[in-house]
Amino acid sequence: MQDFTPESAAGPQPGRWPRRLIVGVAAVALLALAVSSLFADGGAHTLDRQIMLLLRNPQAPDDPLGPHWFEDVMRDMTGLGGIGVVVGGGLLFAGYLWLRRRRGDVLILAGSLAGAQLISAVSKLLVARPRPDLVSHEAQIYSASFPSGHTLMATVTWVTFAMLLAADFEDRRVRDYLLLIAWITAIAVGCSRVYLGVHWPSDVLAGWAIGALWMVVLSRLVPRLRGR
Question: Which domain covers residue 42, as residue numbers?
Answer without folding.
Answer: 16-50+77-225
